[in-house]
Each structure stands twice: as structure tokens, then as C-alpha cells.
Automatic annotation (TrEMBL), chain A:
Its main location: membrane. Pfam families: CbiQ. It comes from Shewanella cutis. It is found in: Membrane. Signal peptide: none annotated. The chain crosses the membrane at residues 23-43, 71-90, 96-116, 128-152. It is a multi-pass membrane protein. Keywords: Membrane, Transmembrane, Transmembrane helix. This is Cobalt ABC transporter permease.
UniProtKB/TrEMBL annotation, chain B:
It comes from Shewanella cutis. This is ATP-binding cassette domain-containing protein. The keyword Transferase does not apply. Transmembrane segments: none annotated. Keywords: ATP-binding, Nucleotide-binding, Transport. The lineage of its organism: Bacteria, Pseudomonadati, Pseudomonadota, Gammaproteobacteria, Alteromonadales. Belongs to the ABC transporter superfamily. Residues 4-228, 239-454 form the ABC transporter domain. GO terms for molecular function: ATP binding. InterPro entries: AAA+_ATPase, ABC_transporter-like_ATP-bd, ABC_transporter_ATP-bind, ABC_transpr_CbiO/EcfA_su, P-loop_NTPase. It holds the Pfam family ABC_tran.
């Protein structure tokens, strides 16, 4: 009896190890984020304010974890400008509020994802996803998330290089819609080419590090989290 | 013990395209070190991929591998091989795939990092490392699996001298333990101590020996080229004493004396990997805004993106990122058109560099050296007053190396102030001064004429 109790305690301790706690926390965060993002689209307008309050807490927490909200803010401003301009052209001034609500919903769906990227390591998200997805798919999701900051930096550098080369894509030049196509072929095309090359080279890099060789994949846990 | 053998192997990237590798015969045994040299675009990296078994296209001929062979491949650009966000997770990736239990990973990861001389916290974000440090991280990510055969693509170009010497020590030990090594390297001399077999790959054929450039690069100097130590031109860039620090961080380096760049001089900015060379170049170009601004004046103004027009050029590493046009000629004409300069300059420049045959080709299909040279030439066409180059000689073979120097000397003769970064001392008579960035200190070294002329 005593022996089976000790074994049970040992089993529980192992199952509720630090690594397990991290994974569980990440799984809960992922679930929470999915629910919040879905709510942004399905909740009625009068419930968006409480949802915005929850998102506000996520923003504060993300900022406390040294996350940068500037990318999300820029996305929101661009989204707002384009959407409101289209609503104004298509439906007139009376429907501008509706346009703003649409943008608001998109932002409320984006913020939880931003928060998750800051608070959870991509490999941990990959580990959670591998519980119900094939490990190759889970890796693709984790690798894509890891790639986001790099690609953001890459877009910024390509934009700056092209500005220096005289492309009409400075914020001032982009006030004129005639220059918008230049942003597409000077920045978007090179970024897409980079992305294609990168995905191919990353596949080779993963293959050269034995990716896909074993069916039983394990997961790294940083000793940082031991503290 | 034989680890791997190629017998009559041919390979191409499409049935309509010319073969990249033809009838290769090559054998690697435990404890051997092979070095493959050849011109840029000759198929050296394809050969490494084939040896590593990661080449997905079919090949002709036979490749025999030892049944238990573990290979490790480190490609040229470490940036494209990063799969995780922290140093520890990156190195542990291969262990995860081999199903090594999590509790056994830590000592292996730490040992691999120590072997390549990376003494960093395991949760250090990979994005904060320099290109050279990332290359070493990639080597660690392969060494963690204790491979029998390690394949390295141009380590000398990516690492500073200290990094190369540390890598040599590691490789020497690994070879002594029986690991085989294949290096693809333009500068085989840096690894002479450990290399047993030299190979050259040219026109798809592999033969014994070291590749040497047959068509001599341009050496004819522009008429107004003034030699080295004289830099009496107008001051185009000036900085007073400053501390360089990223927002919320400790100073990366200090510059107690400040520095100046004069018209018509070529100045080398030399420092170890991760010392802050690229960041300084970006600050001068006005594309890196820091809260603690550097007291800098470039062409009489505070640096800001887009205020200099065609008067300032910046060439960053991996310059192929900026290419987007459908032909080399239109790519080169883009900036000329935007700055209202004569488009004919592009054709003249291509003719001068002996690259007219590339004019109608897609810039995306060129070799690394050609892309780099086209990116540099499109800046040179503008005849800028200040040109900032981030490691413009990295990964270039001697053929393109000569062409790059020809362009730089030509621009210098036209009065352009050139600041070029490098992770090792630039041995060229056209360099008049050196800004050294070591141990967190940016200081100036002036070469005396006689000193530069020795040898």
C-alpha cells in the first residue's frame, strides 16, 4: 500500500514537472487566445467593450514583458485609413461608424495573437500543437512564428534600402496613391522572393538537423524557466 | 574507414539546364579533411547538399554512405538556417528530432556552444547575435549531434580572425577524434593546418588542386587615383566623441575621439563579429534611429532617411535583397531614373566591368558574386559623395574581388568618401585609414605610405 502511494506521488510529481507546467500554461494560453479572437468576430457590438478591456490587460501584460506594440498600432492605423476611405467612397459618411467597428473587431482579434507571440516561446506552441497535429505541421507553425520578427526586420530593411535607392515610398510620397504600386514592386516583391528562398533554405536546414527522422520527437525546455 | 563515396555522380537543376556537377568521383574517410575551391556559382554548395543528403532533386551515378553515417551541414548564410528564437532552443533542435530526452539535452547543448567559443546565456535571443556569431551557432547546432562528417560552406568569409582561429582549434580536435570534414572555401590558406586533400570544382568537374583565377581581374587604376595616405579632401562625414548604445542597453562601444571621412578616401571600419560595425553604418545612413543620438554630420546635415538623394549610397550584407527588376540593366537604371541622372551610365558601367552579357538576364538568376557586384555597380552609377559598404568583400572569389576594388578606386578618384566595414584588416593599398572597433572602443589608425607599400 505504502509502496503504491510513493509510486503514485512520484508519478504525479513527474507529470506535474516544470516542463509539464510550462506546456500546460502554453496550451491554456493558446486556447484562451483562440476564444478571444473568435469572440472579436461573433460577439454583438455592445459586448465589444468588455472584450476590449480584456485585450487592454493583454496589451499591458505584453508591454510589461518588453513586447513592442508599434507593429499592431501601425497595422491598425493603416487598416483604419483604408477601410474608412472605402466606406466613405462606397456608402458615404453615415456608415463610417460601421467601418470603424469592423476595424475594431480585426484589432481585437489580432491583439491576443500578438500577446501569445510575446508570452509563449514558438517551440512551446509547437509542442502543444504536436499533441493534436502531425509533428511536421506543428513544426511549420512554430517555425512560421519564429520567422515573424525576422521577416518584420527584413521588410523594414528592404524598405529602407529602397528609400535610399530613390524609390517613391517614403511616408510623404505614399500620400499620393500613384506611388502605391512602387511599394508593391520595390518592397513586396523582394520580400516575397526572400520568403520563398527562405522557406526552401529553412527546409534544407531542418532536414540537415534530422527533422522528420524520428517519430518520437522530444522538446527543449530552457533552463531560464527553472527559476 | 570509408564514410562516403561518390562514383560518377552528375547533377542538374532541370533536364533543360546544363549539369552543375559532372561525373564526380570522390571518397571521404574518417579523420580526413577535404577542401573544395572554385569560382562563385560553380556548384560547390550543391555538392555539399548532395554530400549531406539534403538535395531533393535526383542525380545520376552512385552515392554510397556508411550505414551509421551522421552528417552535419552548415550552409553559407546562417541567417536562413535559424529555426528558433533563442540560442539554447536553436542548438537543441537536432536533439529534439532525434528524440533525446529533454533532461539530457542541457549538457550537450552547453558543450556544443563551448566548443565553438560561444559563451552566451541559453535564452539569448538569436536576433541579437552578429552574422559571425550566428555562423558559429549553426556549427554548434550540428556538433551537438556529434556528426561523423561535417560540411562547412565558406566559414572564413563569415568569421573574424579570432573566430577562425577558435574554429580551427575545434576542428583540429574533432578531426583527431575521427570526424571527417569537407570545407568549401575560397581562402584555403586559412585552413592549411588541417586540410589533407585539395579539390577544385570548375565547369562541373572535380579535380585535385586549388582553384586559381585564370582571367586576371582588372587592375588598371583610374587616372586620378591618388594613392593611399593622402586624404586632404573636404570633410563629408564627421562625428564628435560619442557612446553608441541601443535604447535601454549598456554602450556597445565608445568613440572618445570622434572620426571624420574625407572626400576621395577609402576608410576601412574593422572589428570583430558583433562589435557594432553594421549599426554604425546604418546610423550614418540615417536608417537607425536611437534615443541617444550620435553627434554626426553627414554632408553637412544630421542623418535622416531619404534626405541625401543620390549623394549617399549604402550597401548592406546580402545585397540580393534589394533586387526586384526583371533585368540587370533595368535594375541598374532604377535609381538613375529616380534621381534624374542619365540612364546611359548603367550600360557604360556594365561595359566597363565586362558584364554586358548579363544586361538582359534576370538579376535573381545570377550567382552570389554577380548579384553583389550588380548591387554595388548600381550604387556606383549614381556617383555618390558618400558610400557606405557593409562587408562588401565577404564571400567574393578573386575574380569579383578585383572588380569590386576597381569600382571602389574609381569612385574614390571621383571624390567619393568610402567607408567599408570588414571583420578583418583590409589588405589593400587603396585603403588610407582604418577605424578599429575592438573591445568596445572605436579608434583611428593611419597607415604610413611606406608601411602600406611593404610587400
Amino acid at each position: 500500500m505504502w509502496v503504491s502511494c510513493s509510486r503514485w506521488r512520484l508519478f504525479v510529481r513527474r507529470c506535474w514537472s516544470r516542463e509539464c507546467q510550462e506546456t500546460m500554461l502554453c496550451a491554456l494560453s493558446l486556447f484562451f487566445v483562440c476564444i478571444l479572437s473568435a469572440c472579436a468576430f461573433v460577439l454583438p457590438v455592445d459586448l465589444l467593450l468588455p472584450l476590449a478591456a480584456i485585450n487592454g490587460f493583454l496589451v499591458l501584460h505584453g508591454l510589461a514583458r518588453r513586447g513592442s506594440i508599434m507593429g499592431v498600432v501601425k497595422l491598425g492605423v493603416i487598416q483604419l485609413t483604408i477601410t474608412l476611405s472605402l466606406y466613405l467612397l462606397l456608402y458615404g459618411v453615415g456608415h463610417l461608424a460601421q467601418g470603424a467597428v469592423v476595424v475594431g473587431r480585426i484589432m481585437l482579434a489580432t491583439i491576443p495573437g500578438w500577446w501569445l507571440c510575446i508570452t509563449a516561446a514558438p517551440e512551446r506552441i509547437g509542442e502543444v500543437l504536436s499533441a493534436f497535429l502531425p509533428s511536421k505541421w506543428a513544426f511549420v507553425v512554430a517555425a512560421s512564428l519564429s520567422l515573424l520578427p525576422y521577416m518584420a526586420e527584413e521588410v523594414r530593411e528592404i524598405y529602407q534600402i529602397q528609400c535610399l535607392r530613390g524609390a517613391r515610398i517614403t511616408p510623404k510620397a505614399l500620400r499620393n496613391p500613384k506611388n502605391w504600386p512602387e511599394l508593391v514592386y520595390c518592397v513586396l516583391f523582394p520580400v516575397l522572393i526572400q520568403l520563398l528562398k527562405l522557406s526552401r533554405q529553412m527546409a534544407v536546414a531542418a532536414q540537415s538537423r534530422h527533422f522528420g527522422k524520428s517519430t518520437r520527437v522530444t522538446h527543449w525546455h530552457s533552463p531560464r524557466d527553472k527559476k | 574507414m570509408k564514410l562516403l563515396e561518390l562514383d560518377g555522380v552528375s547533377f542538374n537543376y532541370g533536364s533543360q539546364l546544363a549539369p552543375v556537377l559532372q561525373e564526380l568521383k570522390f571518397s571521404i574517410g574518417a579523420g580526413q579533411c577535404h577542401c573544395v575551391s572554385g569560382p562563385t556559382g560553380s556548384g560547390k554548395s550543391s555538392l555539399l547538399n548532395l554530400l549531406a543528403g539534403v538535395q531533393n532533386r535526383p542525380h545520376e551515378g552512385e552515392i554510397w554512405r556508411h550505414s551509421e553515417l551522421i552528417t552535419g551541414l552548415v550552409m553559407q548564410d546562417p541567417q536562413t538556417q535559424l529555426l528558433r528564437q533563442t540560442v539554447g532552443a536553436e542548438v537543441a533542435f537536432a536533439l529534439e528530432n532525434l528524440g533525446i530526452p529533454a533532461e539530457n539535452m542541457l549538457p550537450k547543448v552547453q558543450l556544443a556552444l563551448r566548443r565553438v567559443g560561444l559563451f552566451l546565456r541559453l535564452d539569448t535571443p538569436v536576433s541579437t547575435l552578429s552574422l559571425g556569431q550566428k555562423y558559429r551557432l549553426m556549427i554548434a547546432a550540428q556538433l551537438v549531434c556529434e556528426p561523423h562528417l561535417l560540411l562547412l560552406d565558406e566559414p572564413w568569409a563569415q568569421l573574424d580572425d579570432h573566430g577562425v582561429s577558435e574554429l580551427l582549434t575545434v576542428l583540429r580536435d574533432l578531426i583527431a577524434e575521427g570526424m571527417a570534414l569537407v570545407l568549401v572555401e575560397h581562402n584555403a590558406a586559412a585552413f592549411t593546418d588541417i586540410i589533407n586533400h585539395y579539390w577544385q570544382l570548375e565547369a562541373g568537374r572535380l579535380s585535385a588542386g586549388i582553384y586559381t583565377v585564370r582571367d586576371t581581374p582588372m587592375h588598371d587604376e583610374p587616372t586620378r587615383y591618388r594613392g593611399s595616405a593622402s586624404h586632404q579632401g573636404k570633410v563629408l562625414v564627421s562625428a564628435e566623441a560619442f557612446d553608441f548604445c541601443f535604447d535601454g542597453c549598456q554602450p556597445l562601444f565608445r568613440c572618445p575621439q570622434g572620426f571624420q571621412l574625407h572626400a576621395g578616401e577609402i576608410v576601412a571600419l574593422v572589428g570583430a563579429n558583433g562589435s557594432g560595425k553594421t549599426s554604425l553604418l546604418k546610423s550614418i545612413a540615417g536608417i537607425l534611429s536611437l534615443k541617444l543620438r550620435i553627434p554626426l554630420k553627414v554632408l553637412g546635415r544630421k542623418p535622416k532617411l531619404g534626405v541625401y538623394g543620390g549623394e549617399l549610397g549604402l550597401l548592406l550584407q546580402r545585397s540580393n535583397r534589394q533586387l526586384f527588376e526583371t533585368s540587370v540593366l533595368t535594375e541598374m537604371q532604377f535609381s538613375l531614373h529616380r534621381f534624374g541622372l542619365p540612364k546611359e551610365r548603367a550600360e557604360q558601367m556594365l561595359a566597363e566591368l565586362g558584364l554586358m552579357m548579363l544586361a538582359e538576364q534576370s538579376p535573381h538568376k545570377l550567382s552570389y558574386g554577380q548579384q553583389h557586384l550588380i548591387a554595388l555597380a548600381s550604387l556606383a552609377c549614381l556617383q555618390p559623395k558618400v558610400l557606405l559598404l557593409d562587408d562588401p568583400l565577404a564571400g567574393m572569389d578573386k575574380h569579383y574581388y578585383g572588380k569590386v576594388w576597381y569600382l571602389l578606386k574609381r569612385l574614390s578618384a571621383q571624390g567619393c568618401a568610402i567607408l567599408m566595414s570588414s571583420h578583418r584588416v583590409v589588405e589593400h593599398s587603396a585603403v588610407s585609414r582604418q577605424l578599429s572597433l575592438y573591445n568596445g572602443l572605436l579608434t583611428e589608425t593611419i597607415f604610413a605610405m611606406d608601411e602600406r607599400d611593404v610587400g
